[in-house]
Design goal:
By secondary structure, the chain is an alpha/beta fold. It is built from 17 helices and 13 strands.
Length: 527
């Protein structure tokens, strides 16, 4: 099998992994080849607006595990291949020189053992960073069960690390992936957090994470919060099950030193772009409330840069999984990304987004609108008297527009006609605010009436976009067959449910290309 046949198999095997982005890295180019600060992911956008790409590939798809949901499971009847580290390193450099890519996303199935596979991944990264002197962006997956020394060495070579949590609860993990243990997943996560904290550059992926003054624990039913008074609860090791041994806070010495040919006074930094993780949605029976609690715990405990949610696509018939005829829960995935945004940038807690009375996110309206409709006693608020925390709770007002409103009302009163120019989605916000004492919504403040008006407006907007798409294609004289048209409509509809990125992350160029979320620079979010 030649190297391009391997590439075809292993790139196809990696397509379900959504956990890759480039924001936050600080790797400097000191005369070497490549530049991580302007690298990105497949068909994405950098901070300066360029379309850039990242080679996303597995080192091998030969796996010793037999996870029910995985296309590369041991029992799957699929083509198998493995790169040699030298092959993959030379392929990355060849593609880089041809300007096909600007970085690498490297993951792998578990061939032999976690350490054996990780050693081969490390060898590939050593060749890129050392022999080829490549300074471009590298995102490396850490395999659960990898030894601390290898995690440390890979972290020095990569810009971002990620350990997939796979499923929201340990119960689901035991059913669908019995060979994987929660301890094996969270031990490298904790080590990565501690090593990043050692260099005093630990930053989470949001600027408004809810802090309830609690330390967190991983229980059999999932994540939950346990009352406590530890300020740095993310350093605690007791979120694992009781029999898990805590990894020492003192970083392990030794490991695998990186070779440097140039000698340009460059010092490797451990995972400068932080860590992320990915969670499969729809393969198991957890409620959205459980998933939201899990994401809150991961952000608070490990200071994750991002959590990615992947709608489960049925790949096999199994009594433990949804039927092959079950469509991927893309709408649910969209809503979870929106809930993620509320946690990170709007100061919401998991209990406010979904609770026992409302275990699933509303399919008709976004989580922020759903929360507002459940708390109509708090509205309307006077826009000129509201604090920024209150403004962030208003549907249609994003983080950027809230700051603009606060700045403006220090100088003069904010009028209703000013809101649109500030980036506020007035069609949503009008039902929850007053401007200079005047209410611009409907005469009735009934939640169901507002829900219906907002849903109808969204449906009309989607239909208008659909007809516009037909008109454009007719005008250009390009006939679309039924399949192409339906695919285009699905893509448009998906984009309508997406949340553009926050100003902070858009400036860093972070963008997703998998399934649901599209973070585009320079636009105000409209939750």
């Amino acid at each position: 099998m030649d190297i391009y046949e391997k590439l075809s198999i292993l790139a196809e095997s990696a397509k379900y992994d959504a956990s890759c982005s480039t924001s936050g890295t600080e790797r400097k180019n000191t005369g070497r080849m490549g530049n991580a600060s302007c690298a990105g992911i497949c068909h994405s956008w950098s901070a300066d607006g360029r379309c850039i790409s990242l080679l996303k590939v597995l080192l091998t798809n030969k796996c010793i595990y037999d996870c029910e949901y995985c296309i590369n499971r041991r029992s799957a009847d699929t083509a198998r291949a493995s790169f040699e580290p030298e092959e993959l390193a030379s392929l990355v450099m060849e593609f880089y020189r041809r300007n096909y890519i600007e970085g690498l996303f490297l993951s792998s199935a578990v061939e032999g053992s976690p350490d054996r596979t990780s050693e081969r991944m490390l060898r590939c990264l050593e060749l890129l960073r050392g022999t080829w002197d490549f300074a471009g962006y590298i995102h490396a997956k850490i395999i659960p069960g990898t030894s601390p020394e290898l995690v440390h060495a890979i972290g020095l070579a990569a810009d971002r690390l990620s350990v997939n949590i796979e499923l929201p609860t340990s119960k689901s993990l035991a059913i669908l992936a019995p060979q994987k243990k929660a301890e094996g997943i969270f031990t490298p996560m904790r080590q990565i957090t501690e090593e990043i904290a050692d260099r005093r550059q630990l930053r989470s992926g949001g600027d408004a994470l809810w802090d309830g003054g609690k330390r967190l624990q991983y229980l059999d039913g999932g994540f939950s919060a346990i009352a406590g008074d530890e300020k740095n609860s993310w350093r605690s090791a007791d979120f694992l099950s009781e029999d898990a041994s805590a990894y020492s806070a003192e970083r392990q010495s030794g490991g695998f030193p990186m070779r440097r040919n140039g000698g340009k006074n460059y010092k490797e930094v451990f995972a400068p772009a932080g860590q992320s993780t990915q969670m499969i949605v729809g393969a198991s029976k957890e409620t959205d409330a459980q998933i939201v609690r899990t994401m809150q715990t991961l952000y608070q405990t490990f200071r994750m840069k991002r959590i990615y949610y992947s709608a489960y696509i049925p790949v096999r018939e199994s009594p433990l999984l949804p039927s092959l005829l079950t469509p991927p829960p893309l709408k649910r995935e969209h809503r979870l990304y929106q809930a993620d945004w509320l946690l990170r940038f709007y100061g919401f807690s998991a209990e406010e987004i979904a609770d026992e009375q409302n275990p699933f996110l509303d399919k008709d309206v976004d989580p922020k609108m759903s929360w507002a409709l459940r708390h109509m006693d708090l509205f309307p608020i006077e826009i000129n008297k509201a604090s920024i925390e209150e403004l962030l709770r208003v549907p249609g007002i994003g983080a950027l527009s809230a700051r603009r409103i606060v700045r403006q009302k220090r100088r003069a009163a904010v009028h209703f006609d000013d809101l649109k120019n500030m980036g506020v989605v007035v069609k949503r916000a009008r039902y929850f605010i007053t401007c200079c004492g005047r209410f611009y919504g409907e005469s009735s403040m009934e939640p169901e009436l507002i829900r219906g008006l907002v849903s109808n407006a969204e449906t009309k907007r989607k239909k208008k976009s659909k007809y516009s798409l037909l008109a454009i294609n007719d005008k250009q004289g390009k006939a679309m067959d039924s399949a192409d048209f339906n695919r285009s409509i699905e893509e448009e509809s998906s984009s309508a449910a997406m949340i553009p990125g926050s100003p902070e992350e858009c400036e860093q160029g972070e963008q997703l290309s998998m399934f649901s979320l599209s973070e585009t620079g320079g636009k105000e979010e409209t939750v």
